[in-house]
Amino acid sequence: MEPSPCRLLLLEVDSYATATMSLSPAMARAREEGKVPETLAMFSHRRPSIVMGRQNDPEVDVRSPYCLQEGITVKRVPTPGTIFGHPGYIMNVLYMDRDRVPESIPDIFALINRRVARAFFEAWGLRARHRPINDLEVETGEEWKKVGPFSISFFGSCVCCRMGLTITPIPYDLVERTMPGPPEKFADKKAKSVSQRVGYLEEALGRPVEIGEVQEVVRDALGDLFGFRFERGDLTDLEKRYEQELLDRYDNDEWFWANSIGRRFPEIPAGAALHEFVKKMPQGPLVRARVLAKGAHILDCSLTGWYHGMRPLDALERIEAALQGKSAHPEDILQAVEGVCQREGIQIDGCSPSDFQATVLEALEQPPLEGVRIQADPAPAL
Hey, how many other C-beta atoms are within 10 angstroms of the C-beta on 342? Predict the structure, then answer.
């Protein structure tokens, strides 16, 4: 079979965060509409920034005031995944037709990671492997370290596969000051901190590595896997217009702070209480359930946390809405979550309806939160 043409974009952008918030989804939209070809975009970045996933809480998962003080860009994006991107980190994004990949999100992660791992061995003799749920690991000395986070989003008939690769040393002290990460996030991992868990290609190879060298290895691996013939191209005027529309929509305080506890639960009604429980799913996401309950009924809930892949992008908001006003009885909670997932085709990688049920029930067992943390004087979106 003849290879399929695929546009190749090499994009140097100011920050990974801004590109992920606006440019990347603009490209996905244009592909979904059939107005641009299937595309592999390889992003490199001029300065450090943080991509805060759609489901994260800006008061808990990122130290937003510190980032503002230090001039580190933080953007909440409409897709899952929270990542610190420095100039030695690249993002490789495939915007392609949905029917090119398996139905299951975990199977997509495994398919691409395993092919890239094989390419690392073929090019460099570097042992690499896929670690469920979404990590690419390389052998570094006697340890296996993550060098590639992976997330997936669906835009209609377009699937957007984002594979990051860390090439040069990560400023771990800066990462740990800006993205503390709850201890539950490492509950199913041997490493108990970012610096223990995450490595970089120069460390694994024991030599300097150029960004272009890595891009060539990844490009060839993805071309072989999906049968693409890459042709250099440029962004279209349409994609640039869509990018500006997304900047207008997302680069503001209302969107950035939406998942903060004060914005999400501005008032606690008389007789009601707000409960919270955090649970790390084995080989899956970290879920932070906040449940506003009165008596035996759920008034409202939020399901923030650290997620990897889901469809549709507003899957969690749909589950939250399905639980509003429901009985707090275990069977009623499970029925509500299973029902909305089945009706609306919701798929959340590594987390089942019964996992959400268990986390919500655990939250209801916790003592009420003492007061509500309110961002009294919100800083502008970073």
Answer: 10
| Same domain (yes/no): 181, 35 | yes
SS3 content of the chain, % helix, strand, coil (to 5): 35, 30, 35
* Cβ within 8 Å of residue 124, ≥6 positions away: 205, 217
156: left (phi over 0), alpha (psi -120 to 50) or beta: left
Q: How far apart are CA 246 and CA 242, in angstroms?
A: 6
Do residues 244 and 262 both lie within one domain? Answer: no
- Check whether residue 241 and residue 195 sit in a common domain: yes
Query: What is the pLDDT, as a whole number, of residue 183?
Result: 53
DSSP annotation string for 192-247: -SHHHHB--HHHHHTS---HHHHHHHHHHHHHHHHTEEEEE----HHHHHHHHHHH
Domain shared by 132 and 246, yes or no: yes
Question: What is the average pLDDT across 120-139?
Answer: 95
**Six-digit token pair at 288?**
């932070």
Q: Could you tell me if 168 and 88 are in contact, meaning their C-beta atoms sit under 8 angstroms apart?
A: yes
Q: How many domains does the chain have?
A: 2
Q: What is the C-alpha radius of gyration for the chain, rounded to an integer number of angstroms?
A: 21
Does 131 reside within a domain?
Answer: yes
164-186 pLDDT, tens digit per residue, is: 999 999 888 888 889 876 655 54
Domain with 200 in it = 4-48+86-251
- Residues 100, 243, single domain; the answer is yes
pTM of the entire predicted model:
0.78
